[in-house]
Amino acid sequence: MRLHTATTFCLAMIFASVTFAQQPPPAGAPLPTPQMPPPGAAMNAPPPMYPAPELDRVVSPIALYPDPLLAQVLAASTFSPEIPDAARWSDQHHYLRPEMLPAAIAADRLPWQPPVQALLPFPSVLDMMASAMPWTEEIGGAFLADPQQVMDAVQRMRQTAYGYGYLRSSPQVVVRSGPFIEILPANAAYIVVPYYRPDVVFVAPRRGFVVTSAVSFGFGVTIGTAFEPWGWGGTRFVWTNHALIVNNAPWGRTWVNHVTYVHPYAVQRYTVVRTEARPADHHELVVRSPNEREAQRTGHAVEEHKKPEERKKGG
After folding, report:
1. What is the dihedral of CA 76, 77, 81, 83, to 10 degrees?
2. Strand 182-185 relative to strand 216-222: parallel, antiparallel, unpaired?
3. Phi/psi of residue 217, each to 5°?
């Protein structure tokens, strides 16, 4: 185990403030201690296999994400070293509308893998992943080691939340039950980030609790056709086959081929030798305010910064 008890506890507290679908995790159900190898050995030794109960807890923060967002997060987590830089860039460019991001990606020659870039319109999701890197490395390793087991864990948690009445269709998402539970955007172009507490939605409701209030879909992002090359609109699960479809092609990156795997995204890749070699940013860098961060964390949308074009006009 690479982290001693005190460090693990500190990381768990950090993770508690930013994850579990943008709100604190359950005090009584901590994530399993990360078991990934040290950074220098992470790409040389296969990740550990987890028993089902541990894997259930690992996926619980994102199990109720709509299928397209869940798929992008799982794919991105397999490139975990890129997450912190991408989260920083996304935060600094959060004021750019999604349709403006492709041009910004090209102008700045962003070198990150397409599934990581696909999350740039969601600074709160990338911030959650970057602020809890032991968890991000862990779920990425688990998905590389056995994607079907991860999908099974997602389904177990969804079935639990559905069985207790917490997970239901809303104006923002359509929940389809059956042998497998799908969570699909009601509007394919509007991707919501759910707000829920795993210590609530995955346990039996207490007497008198209004179960329909436990999962909120108040914060979302409109993803238009400009982001289709990053898989939006063509990324989904085929739950009956335990298949992840990314950009309308099967996702086949596993631990065996993770070094040589060629992604199915239709976007240009920019390669740099060092981070310093990347061109300077072509846009103003404006990080989210504490109020903006908290609003997104709790499932709302607040934008306190004027757009650059508004400032030029004196608006």
Report:
1. 60
2. unpaired
3. -120, 55
